[in-house]
Every structure is written in C-alpha cells, then in structure tokens.
From TrEMBL:
It comes from the Eukaryota. It comes from Rhinopithecus bieti. Gene3D superfamilies: Penicillin V Acylase, Chain A. This is Secernin 1. One of its GO terms (molecular function) is dipeptidase activity. Belongs to the peptidase C69 family. Secernin subfamily. One of its GO terms (biological process) is proteolysis. InterPro entries: Peptidase_C69.
Length: 131
C-alpha cells in the first residue's frame, strides 16, 4: 500500500497571530476531485441510550453535543478538521504503519474528529491524554 501524501496542521498563537486570536489550520491530503463540505451543526441534547450513525458503524450518543463547524468529505459522517463552540479544535492526520488494517468495520479517524463536538475544553484534554 502506498503511503498517504503528507497533511499538516498548524497553530499560530499571539503575538504571531493578530488581535490576540489563535489561528488553527490544516491542509488536506484527500483526492483533489473529492467534494469537501464545510458544515455547521447546532448544539443539541440527545435521548438517553440513543445511537449515532457514523461512517460504517453506530455508537452510543452522548447526552449533549456542542455546536461545531467542520470540513469533511461529502460521503462520510466524520470530519477532516473542525472546531466547536468552546474553541476545541481538532484535525485528522494520516498515520502510516506496517501493521495491516483489521478486516472489520470500525470508526474512522475522521469519525473521531467529528466526535470532538461532544467535548468541552476540560473534557477534550482528558480524552486526548487517556491511555
């Protein structure tokens, strides 16, 4: 299998970014003819024990999702990158490995990126640092 082309994220903090802002960005290594959507989803409360349909599988829905703006390939549920109403930014990066992929349907890395809309800043830190 050929290695994925590189994709890069960047963050600029003050004083490099003007007006006290933080700038987050990412290029995409997706095929150039693949449709990319920029989509906004409002915050929402969800029924207890409800499910969310991801790209290939369903998972338990969290009680509350925060508003999010994401960039995603039109054909999948997940996201290339996004930010939620609390300023939590996250992006997908390709990881090349020598281990073969499992032959089962599972969450994609881009599904995990979109799932960040459920996190507030304190929650996102604990999710990213948990073993």
């Amino acid at each position: 299998m050929a290695a994925a082309p590189p994709s890069y994220c960047f963050v600029a903090f003050p004083p490099r970014a003007k007006d006290g802002l933080v700038v987050f960005g990412k290029n995409s290594a997706r095929p150039r003819d693949e449709v990319q959507e920029v989509v906004y989803f409002s915050a929402a409360d969800h029924e207890q024990e409800s499910k969310v349909e991801c790209t290939y599988i369903s998972i338990d829905q969290v009680p509350r999702t925060h508003a999010i703006m994401i960039s995603r390939p039109a054909w999948l549920w997940g996201a290339e990158m996004g930010a939620n109403e609390h300023g939590v930014c996250i992006a997908n990066e390709a990881i090349n490995t020598r281990e073969p992929a499992a032959e089962i349907e599972a969450l994609l890395g881009m599904d995990l990126v979109r799932y960040c809309h459920a996190w507030a800043p304190k929650e996102s830190f604990s999710h990213k640092t948990r073993n």
